[in-house]
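As the next step, I selected for study a record pairing a protein sequence with its backbone structure tokens, which the following lines show:
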Amino acid sequence: MQIEETVTPYRRIILIAVIVGLIAGIGALFFFEGLKLGTAFFMGDIVGFHLPKEGQTLQDISQWAPPEHLWMILPVICFGGLLSGLLVYTLAPEAEGHGTDAAIKAFHGGGRVRWRVPLVKAVTAVLTISTGGSAGREGPTAQMSAGFGSIAADLLGLSARERRLAIATGVGAGIGTIFMAPLGGAILAAEILYKQDFEAEAIVPAFLASVIGYAIFGLVEGFEPVFGPGLVFWNVTQIPLFILLGVVATAVGLLYIHTFYGANKVFKGIFSRFNLPNHFRPLAGAFLTGTFVLALAALSPEAAIVGLGSLGTGYGFTQLALYNMLPIGVLLFLPFAKILTTSLTIGSGGSGGVFAPGLVIGGATGGAFGSLLHLALPGIVPVESVPVFVVVGMIALFGAISHAPIAVMIMVVEMTGDFSLLVPAMGAVSVAVLLIGQSTIFREQVLNRSRSAAHRDEYMVEILQDIHVGDIMVPRDRIVAVSPDDTTGRVLHLIDETLHTGFPVLDGEGKLVGIIALDDVRDHRMNGEHDVPVEKVMSSRVFTVHPACTLREALDLMTEHDIHHLPVVPAEDPRALSGFVARTDVMKAYVRRASQLGGKRRLTGNSTLIEPENSPDGKKGSMVDG
């Protein structure tokens, strides 16, 4: 089926948003319930480990305890890694790793997601996370929602632009729904695609889709924030300390990025070197993760908490930190343990997101920093302020490494239910974003819209509309012209001498009467006519432009009539030649302006190529898709 052409663009966008919102809400609900059932079975029934959970009250969460059969973690996590790897690499290799990056790649690329990917991603993510793998639920939800958005685009016959809009909206709605943060999720749809730009047209449909997804999910799971509220306090005198936390969060965030992708490179290198099947990469990562946790548990009770906190999403231990229930020793080492287990779990090819681990790493970093400040400066940083450092640490670290500071900031305060924390968070995340540079946890992000294949043509049009023909034309005094009495032999001589393939024809008064190109001469010579007058060969119907015309208008005219040269004439006298412009002149101007606006670029992939005017085969230049 296809959307009828009579449907207005606004109605089409609303329809896309409604469909994606329904998909995000229902998909997130089934995925979340699957995670609950899987975790209860693997961690609860088999391992005997009833994890602390986010959102629990202080009284309920204080009842948590380490598992009775700790050693069972190893076979359980290995089972999850093995089954996940077999499913992913057999059915849908693109479902490996963290799903948000795959969704971003789909947006900037062709926009199509295979129909099997969302289901494979959901099942493998449930297996990975519920058996103890260190991964988040937001990445799979984003990829699932984006994938179902792509499927809807197939069924509805959407255009390429509408397909990309459905994918971006799906990312925001999926993450906003699973985090119970519809506002932040909607903004994330526009912000997470780029390092330094926004996909503005995705914001409004993402608002609608996020609200619909949030409503569906909340009707079953409730509308309470993800994290239960703790006793928090902060004041203006602490703001310099929050800014300093931004610096610390940047350092830990960079460690997270480099460790994660370093582990990914090591796993791929080893399996490639020894010619091992990729199906077993997640098993190797799971085995190392389980062994690491057991080794920590053997050291001390506090080390055991660090190891257990590095399993799964880790949100329950972030909730403990928000209640000031984690010792400072645990807070100090938990970020590094979580970085390692996440790198082993997802970096090896396991299925899950990097968002939740990033928030846990940032929260533990903030909690450790706040606890140290409380010990050193108890009058400035009372114990009630430590949870504020936990929240600000979450925002600063992941807001920076995801290059989505606004969305993450709003999402986290939605997740905690305390919007007063926006002020200290703004200071910390601003510093972190400035310091992080171009490093990112999402490698498929591009710098801005001009670097995205999805917008490259639009960006070219914008540049060409900003330059006028008069700015780049060859002026009258530099034009090589011929007269109607000249012969085709002289034209061929000029072509050999100047390497140009077209010339204006001017009469005795210097007025434009025609244009002659190599193809014109060639056609007559093939008919046996040699050295004939230009007047007999030239094209008398001449398409011209004015100096005030934009390069977009000039290029459209060239493309429409399949010509390579345009005489430039004043509007008041269409026969008075002012200049001459060729396709190559247009493209040279485009490259110069693009370099000025976006730095040096290499025009690759889908970039526009122009056949040079002095092409050896003498053909007129034309635009082709690279």
In short: Residues 1-8, 599-626 have pLDDT under 50 and may be disordered. Residues 9-46 form the longest helix (38 residues).
